[in-house]
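Ticket #4471: complex job returned nothing on first submit. Input attached below:
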Amino acid sequence: MKTVCFYFQVHQPMRLRRYRFFDMGRHHNYLDDAANRSIMQKVARRCYLPMNALLLRLIEKFEGRFRVTFSISGSAVEQFKSFAPEVLESFRKLAATGCVEFLAETYSHSLSSLANMDEFRSEVERHRAMVEQEFGQTPRAFRNTELIYSDDIGAEVSKMGFGTMLAEGAKHVLGWKSPNYVYSGGSLRLLLRNYKLSDDIAFRFSNREWSEWPLTAQKYVDWVSEGAGDVTNLFMDYETFGEHQWADSGIFDFFERLPGVMLDRGLEFATVSEVGYESVGSLSCPHPMSWADEERDVTAWLGNELQDEAFGKLYGLREKVLAVDDADFYFVWRFMQNSDHFYYMATKWLSDGDVHTYFNPYGSAYEAFINYMNVLADFSIELDRKLEDKN
Amino acid sequence: MRVLMFGWEFPPHIAGGLGTATYGLTRGLAKHGVEIKMVVPKAYGDEDQRFVRVVNASDVVTRFGDVRYRDVWDRMSFIEIDSNLIPYCSPEEWECKKEAWKSGKAYEGTDLWEGRFSFSGRYGENLMEEVARYAMVAARVAEELQGQFDVIHAHDWLTYYAGIAAKAVSGRPLVVHMHATEYDRSGENVNRMVYDIEKAGMEAADRVIAVSNLTRNIVIEKYGIAAEKVVAVHNAVRFASSTPEDVERGVEDKIVTFLGRITYQKGPDYFVEAAAKVLKRVPNVRFVMAGSGDMMNHVVRRVAKLGIADRFHFTGFLKGDDVQKMFMLSDVYVMPSVSEPFGISPLEAMRSNVPVIISKQSGVAEVLEYAVKVDYWDVDALADAIYALVEYPALSSMFSEKGLEEVTGLKWDNAAAKVKRVYESVI
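Support reply: We reran it on our side without changes. The output follows.
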């Protein structure tokens, strides 16, 4: 019997307000509260609430046979609490069904695994604790920010006690191999995203230029059944449902029909940790890969002068943050680590320019960089002041 | 003395240095009893209505709301020509803007002037056509006002054809004013058409006024204008009588500021390189680049590459009070221009008690004693100067005190007196 593994990523960055040079040293409110609130509430209305309700219905209808996995960043959970507590409540209801697994990730949806392993561990520990507290589960599987994976990161994750980790089914790593099997990386079990089938839903569903439009549940399940392998990993942003693919595209109707059709065809569902197959072989990945852009590497966030400078300067502050050891400072320290800030500074505008523009609140990478550095400069000044007070 | 002047913006709508300078000069001239009929392009494109409009002096006074200077304004009248000319415009920039203008309607109206002009009824398709159209209108204005002026004065190349035309119609002497040359605007990649108009204007003129000796030399060497025809009259500066209240300083570090368009001729690169050198020695300094321009992204990248972005800040284009605020927050002001015919902003900085470092390649260097002067390309010298002004309080307070005195002495009255003598020499 073939298994289908759905995993949905839930994340909202904490967006910075326009922070000017003249604000430095005077105002320390860095967040665009209005934007963060309105975006959270909009996405809650269009996606989180209706889709959670739909999943709950499906889980109840199929009495345990339909199962899904989530990973929810700490930044998203904090913003649920501030702006949309009913969303957090609906996730708790899903958790209570016993058919939903919650993964561990970095608390701040950060790129810390590429910067500092100590920080990475502390990010993961914090997130694991949050999942336990909010959803009453102890995560056993791990997904890194943007599915960033390398042998080194995998080894670190394994040391932290996780048995399974998610990664991209990237062509340049898999070669001729299929993503539809369990692989191993060191002692970790790796589940690889089937990007073709995942993106059929996440990116192409409503695209009328697409030769397969309109996509029906029947047609989609045909593709899944025809595929080789043990397990089809359908990993995507949760915001696909209702936010990236609008309700009027029929995405909700599509998904409502999907589990029934899949079960009728003899497919079974499993959450990430429940996927039981043996590893068919080990995978070597010396350079970090991710699920982003054509390149499936980390160049969406790091690599140009702006990103490298901001990234280096941010993590250069870590020792001071720990020395100050203050809740307010940790709060800023964490949201400044959101990977999204670095995404806004990307200057590669080739095949994936559209996606980058869609998510970018700034007019250009340069604007994003200038604004981020202004905030970081003020944060750094405040850190020094606080340290002086302490000593 | 009566002058027909082809100029630019007038208050309160002043956008750039050229408008400010023209305004300061006309005020100075008015105080010296010179009567000015000022012809200015009215439309920046979107507004308008009528083709040519004469505003009488009393209207001008109310418009300005400045009754204190009634005697001055009574000597001036304005003629607005509805034209898409704007100061500093290059043919390339004009291309970008004209689409917006084209969507606007052609002029129409019931003005008394309207019937007398028989133009094609559409705006010029390119900047050069617009310049020519402006000249045709200028000729009509000169004809209309025949006998009411003694001399014609044209500011910068866009109005030179107008000046030439007015001279041809009226037979009155022409003075052209070089606020900037095409070499200052474009480096060595001069636009030939612009160069030709500048040259034609200066050749047709009885006198050429240059805003500095630097500009005077360019005019003589690169345009081949006879030296005896070219007079340098340095700009002055006029300050608002009220200074804004103190701004609260957010950061304790010393602030070194560059304020201006971020373009090649302003030398932003040299400022960045010097900043990196200074930051290696002194940790408690911050650099601010205020403004925008076509080199901004390049500069941001360079700052990131040098790894100094936590101490080098960008403000974007500053408007209104923010400019003054920026000066008041500064401890050192740097103008590393590669080529600057005059350069008014160091004077504004000095007025705010800020010591200034200016490039030797700026006209303003000729009139300032209390400013550190360096070659724009000499990054080490620039870094040294910044270091000294940041680290040695005695030096910076000397520069800021003496500098304020010095800048207060630069009056438009004096510049206007020189311009008036130029008029007298050609009548």
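The longest strand of chain B covers residues 35-41. Closing as resolved unless it happens again.
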